[in-house]
Amino acid sequence: MIKLSDYIAEKLRDDYGVKHVFMITGGGAMHLNDSFGKTPGLTFICNHHEQACTIAAECYARLKNDIGVVNVTTGPGGTNTFTGLIGAWLDSIPMLIISGQIKREWCISTYPEIKLRQIGIQEINIVDMARPVTKYSKIVTDPYNIRYELEKAIYIAKSGRPGPVWLDIPLDVQSAQIDVKRLSPFDPKEIEFKPDEKLFKEQITKTIEHLKNSKRPVIIAGFGIRLGKAEDLFYQLIKKLKIPIVTSLSSHDLMWETHPLYGGRFGLYGTRGGNFAVQNSDVLLVMGCRMNLWETGYEYKTFAREAIKIMVDVDKDEMKKPTFKPNIPINIDIKLFLEEMLNQLNREKLPSYSGWLRKTKYWHKKYPNILPEYKKEKKYVNYYYFMGELSKVLKSDDIIVTGNGTAFTGTCQAIQLKKGQRLCINIGCASMGWDLPAAIGAYFASTKKRIVLITGDGSIQFNLQELETIAYRKLPIKIFLINNNGYVAIRITQANFFKRLFGTDKDHGVGFPDMQKIAKAYGIPSMRIKKQKELREKLRKVLASKGPFLCEIMMPPDQPLIPRTKTIVKPDGTLVSKPLEDMYPFLPRNEFRKNMFVKPINAEI
User: Distances in Å between the alpha carbon of 127 and those of 143, 167, 421, 539?
Assistant: First the structure.
């Protein structure tokens, strides 16, 4: 016989290779806490907020490309997880949340005929709350169902389009003694997805025919390639095709700055070169990217408007949304797609796209996001200049994590990645406060590589308590804190649309602490870089330090985030956004037209 909570801990370790559990202790999860704490081979990481637990587990799972595990208690312990949970749900990250619950006899679910809000102390029906943002959510009321439910939940989390799952376990179920021999297994055949093999092979044949007839093909490489563990197949394919590659927000690190096929990044905060490539394409092959509005832009009807759009995605509903409708929707696992593409290409001869490739490389070089004039800043540190200098001194195995706000958009625009580096960001939720917990998760996933966190004075406040987790464990996380006097992106938006400011900085309703004093209170060494002439020397000092370090970068309060697509307010109050190829600051119209293979729309001329 074995206690059920011990069974869970040992099964996660032995059958699924779980090594870390992110948790906060609580009475409603006391048996689970004890089992995760005492089981050899498992390390528990205690954060200081359940939101931080789920964010840490999400970033952990991103880098491990495996499931992240969270353990929280009942009531607010569960509800506090939701921002991190939603981040995993929207970005397709496999996560298992195991929550404690009060005894079965006190659960309102035991008495469905009575419309009660609560019986037990801190009780809440967390399973139904979690259901819309999880792939599977279940309360385990029969101890002898634990093997089945655990295996089913993890299978669902990792199969198809990955995502979070939730198991809620009452106290008297956690503590139950069970006979392992009497436990029933889960059979994946119950829910296994079988693709239409004949259909997807025909679609791949059509894809190759379109590529053979194409003059300006482009591949969009999405994060689904990593989620599908198909990186090696992807690199084999692009080596054979020799087609320009652009990356989405969450897949920047699939390519690197010096790769011969790399054409930049596309989207609202992409590069001019990446957007010119996509918008001028005649065949667009989208692999593992769900094509949200970050990527298509708000004027999505103008996106790649003359291209035959081919989309490969394991989630068929992503290819039905109104904002991106592919001509050929291929509903298949990315690994199966790549294997069949390579197989069919062995029998085909594709044309050379060398002229088109040279053009995309020309755009990428001609229109950098880090401009020479940024070096002239005397009073502060220009964000893009900072990113250029930081890119030079980072090592090829560094892991870069960003917060949200300027640190997110500016880093995605300007960082120059080396082969082997990883860049971790959250796209779908993009919550303020993702930074510190994500960096913690990245450290434990990374076999102790150096973690470089770039965040802002606004975002860091949302999970500031995680500085203690970093300090307590002496994690070698280098924190570059962008001080732009609050919320610069919101200041820009409010100034553009309303010509007045509210809730953006200390002069307009929201204050921010002295982060040098905060770092000192947590026992974390820190420094401040005020001017660009100090940058190179101090960057090296920070990166060479042992343990955690906080380096505050004093950025211009009015730092523009450019290039970007711009939304214009018409006299009648309606909003109109420019198409992706026409980024602000706008190029001279003659120069812009020379870069267009497709016909510009009227608003661009």
Answer: 17, 8, 38, 47
